[in-house]
Amino acid sequence: MGILNSIFGKKKQDLFIPFWSAFGRSYGCGNLRIPNKKYSEITLKSLVGHICNAVETIEVWDANKTNEHQLESWGVKFARKIIKDNFREIFFDSYSKGYFVLLHNSDTTDIEYLPAKYTQVRADGSVYVEGGKMSEGTRAYLFYEKSYKADGRTMEQVCKTTLDYIDNILNTASTGNARLGNLTIITPSSTPMGGEVLRDSEKKEIERLISESYGGLDSQSSLLLFPNSLNISTISFDFGKLQLFEQLKMEMMQLCDHFNIPYDILPLSGQSTFNNQDNAYTMLYVTAERWVMMIQDAFKSLGVEFEFELKGKPKTEAQKLEQAKKDAVATMAQAVASGLMTIEEARKELEKYYDISKEKAL
Question: What is this structure's pTM?
Answer without folding.
Answer: 0.66
